[in-house]
Amino acid sequence: MATESALRFGAQTDEMTSLLRIVNMVRTGEAMTRPEIGRVTGLGRGVVTQRVDYAIQLGYLEDGEFGPSSGGRAPRTLRFRGERGTIIICALGALHIHVGVAALDGDLIDQTHRKWDIARGPADTLAAAMEMIDGLLERTPADSVWGVAVGIPGPVDFDSGRPVAPPIMPGWNGFDIRRGFEQRYGAPVWVDNDVNLLAFGERARRRDEIPDLIYCKVGSGIGAGLISRGRIHRGVNGAAGDIGHVRVRDSDALCRCGKIGCLEAVAGGWALVRDAKIAIAEGAGGFLAARSAAGEDPTPEMIARAAENGDALAISLIQRAARDVGESIAALVNMFNPGTIIIGGAVAAAGELFLAEVRQRVYELSLPLATRDLHIVQSMDDPREPLRGGADMVREQLFDVTFPRWFAEGRPARIEVPVPA
């Protein structure tokens, strides 16, 4: 009797495994017709038909157009019903809130943006973000919310979804970001560092590749998102890629994190603003000085634009920052050996002026083998990228990580993740 029960359980497990795989194959485009599914999986025609019919019955798949014929009757394609649910993305920056909604296939449906100082604290910030999200959902046709992504500009423990001593986010340390979103939208919530969302966005753009890449954001702060063989690398606690707080040689600059000589304290946007103000007070001229005299404080964006337009002070600040950033990236190149490095952020918006210095330092300090096939490029500078990246992160968690736990329910509910004591 026990043997029969074990065999029955094993058969059900095999059936569920193949069913999950078929849905994901159609979702990712690996196989789009019943004959293709049979060839890829090795399952018989009758089994494939049964599994596909069940997936259609559950609402995950539906029949699409007829595909090309290989000599006989043209097979009907299958499509994943990406419109069944909505993914919410909330990308918080130091000085903005950017929210959006996407379909389950990752397509961005709607978005909105507003200026906001994240130092106002978690309660006010998340309330403002949810109000913006609710406005989007009112005009977005969808069955239900299936998942929520939240990106924050600071270190975050991915397993618990809680910020950990974020330097520019007073009052956020250990705050339970998940709970409010879960209670409001009844869906699982994942919280990640903002630069990881940007790395996910780049991965999504390279869907036909299995990329090894680094996304380095040089804005007000500095951080890196690491993709290895197509998978994000967060490390044990989610701190991987936090290059903004590696030590710069011979620097005694005080960082916002409280340590001395961090990369961010000499090359981050806030550090460039600090140094620009000092130089102007000491008599520097040019565009930045003129704007300061007119009552307009420099910003990282202003410094980048001024450098592109030939302002001597801005050029010196950008080039110095790029050399320091390039030195830290070179260490990552030697350890990580990526194929592509994408440079983004407000400071990197200076374009080739910034990239040229980064490239020079990376190629000077990295091993020849590590740079043989390396490409260092500027990001697309598309404000929608963190939203697309957040949608891609949620899709990975829903369909690659937690799918077996909720598949039979037809849609995910809150997914409890144990928090270490």
Automatic annotation (TrEMBL):
Domain of life (superkingdom): Bacteria
InterPro entries: ATPase_NBD, ROK, ROK_cs, WH-like_DNA-bd_sf, WH_DNA-bd_sf
Family: Belongs to the ROK (NagC/XylR) family.
UniProt name for this protein: ROK family protein
